[in-house]
Amino acid sequence: MTGSTEVLTVCRKDEVAEGSVIQVQKDGLDLAVYCVESVFYVTDNLCTHGPGYMNEGYLDGHVIECDFHNGAFDIRTGEVVSPPCMVPLKTYAVLDDAAEVKIALS
Q: Is there a contact between 55 and 23 (Cβ–Cβ < 8 Å)?
């Protein structure tokens, strides 16, 4: 059985400044879009620990720190970097596109 991957255009690349994170709400998803070293990453925007939002946090390289309880995640993998967070942050595969940030939904 072969499945197809749905592609979602999240935003234009020029909407996300280098070294920053923005919130994008699209098709019922609340997403955080990051640009680090000219590479784009997308995660869920809501922290897995509490009612904090990644776009309101502090981005240091590939680590986003939630402003609610200061837990941190690696934006490349979603893995927890520091407590009190224990559950990884959902990440999305970003597809190659010259002008837009597109993700694969499976």
A: yes
98 against 2, higher pLDDT: 98
Distance CA 95, CA 55 (A): 21
Sign of CA dihedral 56, 48, 5, 19: positive
**Can you give the pTM of this predicted structure?**
0.93
Rounded to a whole number, what is the distance in angstroms from the first to the last CA of the chain? 15
* Number of structural domains the chain divides into: 1
Contact 75, 64 (CB under 8 A): yes
- DSSP state at residue 46: B
Q: Is residue 16 part of a domain?
A: yes
Q: Which domain holds residue 21?
A: 6-105
- CA–CA gap between residue 22 and residue 10 (Å, rounded): 11
- What does the pLDDT read at residue 1? 43
Q: 10, 45, 47: which is closest to 27 by C-alpha?
A: 10
Task: Read off the CATH number of the domain in which 48 is found.
Answer: 2.102.10.10
